[in-house]
Amino acid sequence: MATSMADLVNSLSIPAITSISLLLLLLFYIYSQQQQAKNVKKHHPIAGTMLNQLINFNRLHDYMTDLARKHKTYRLIAPFRNEVYTSDPANVEYILKTNFENYVKGMYQHNILKDLLGEGIFTVDGDKWREQRKTSSYEFSTKVLRDFSSVIFRRNGVKLAHILSEAAKNDQILDINDLFMKATLDSIFKVAFGIDLDSMCGSNEEGVRFSKAFDDASAMTLKRYVDITWKIKKFLNIGSEAKLKESVKVIDEFVYKLIRTKTEHMHKTPDDLVLKKDDILSRFLQINDTDPKYLRDIILNFIIAGKDTTSTTMTWFIYLLCKHPQVQQKVAKEIKEATNNKGDVTNIEEFTSSVTEEALEKMHYLHAALTETLRLFPAVPVDAKICCADDVLPDGYDVKKGDMVSYQPYAMGRMKFIWGDDAEDFKPERWIDENGCFQPQSSFKFTAFQAGQRICLGREFAYRQMKIFASILLGCFVFKLSNEDKTANYKTMLNLHIDGGLPIRVFNRHG
């Protein structure tokens, strides 16, 4: 007959029962500790505080790169939340793609940017973002816009080349950064609005006034990120906020007048297909009678996206070519071969006509050199998102609702675990395969154009403008720094502007 549990217990001695009880208590304790450990949050290592950022503000991106070398992902302690910074491609892919909906722009950035950029694509999330993304994606993919923009880029490239030609003739030092800022603004303005701003030559007084107001408004908007008193200044309408308000007023008057004029013109000439299809504003007006405020916001977002980013990249590109003359020579040689030009350029317009789409497609090394520039000097050096709900990143560490989670294109471009021991070297060859063709890398390790659902719509647009400008300028001129011993530094802003401009000398290229 089977022994009952009661009989078994009764047969045990007191020491045996005590031993079994202690064993059960020990097993329960181990189990409870394991369960508790599962519930304990595991956070990234603390690398510093916001105070450390302020102390290192003038070299902020290099300071954060130093931290990234110690920890792929780390935290900085802030008054009301953690700030998490990552250079881990797996985390970047998770933030920008896998769990995209949980990492947003958020109200913090929206409030800072909305006076200038309104409800544009760079300030909104959710349905508003998706609607603009869909419409803008279609526009950027059209052959009409591609062909129209290429004509504009060539025209402004020629204008810039003539300015450089005069400088070469007179042995004049020029700030190439200033010229690129004006040239890219003229280009994006013509593509966006369909009118000539001509900031390079300053012939359009109304346009020049808009350009100055736009630059001032951009600077004052950026200042909000470091000025904790900006809301008080805005309420009192004093200081930088008063200047921002006045600049936005000039911008709005100009843009709304332009929208009214364009709308009236289109209604009077409905059969003018060229007018209706070329520039972005006309194409948006063609879709339906869109709210002028909505149009204003969309266009200004295009301008801020296409102006500073391309001009800063071109400036760093020329700087790196001056520091690496062998690369400059190799790029120029490829341009001459692709355009079938062997001798000296005697006519800039004639040379530019040879910079065709087919020729640009052959310029793999130029594409690599521009991409290598963006790897080391990305136009947006750090990009922040706000975490909407508690989460765990692929590296196993937790992030909390409300944390700011940022990936760091500047730091990532310098990580040896991503790019190898020569990560900090300017080496376009790293992008060229064994057949001499450009070899792209994962957008989650090369993050200059973001990645995932928010990947830059204007990426090919930007490359086309940069390659056209570079082809015309490097096909015609040799560039040298006015002070060849000087090392360029960045100015800590949202975009990676070169500090103090880039004074250069230009010489006519022979052969």
From TrEMBL:
GO MF annotation: an example: heme binding
Keyword Kinase tagged: no
SUPFAM superfamilies: Cytochrome P450 (SSF48264)
Keywords: Heme, Iron, Membrane, Metal-binding, Oxidoreductase, Transmembrane, Transmembrane helix
Pfam families, per the entry: p450 (PF00067)
Cofactors (names): heme
Coiled-coil intervals, chain numbering: none
Transmembrane region(s): 12-32
Binding site for heme: C456
Matching InterPro entries: Cyt_P450, Cyt_P450_E_grp-I, Cyt_P450_sf
Family affiliation: Belongs to the cytochrome P450 family.
Name of this protein: Cytochrome P450
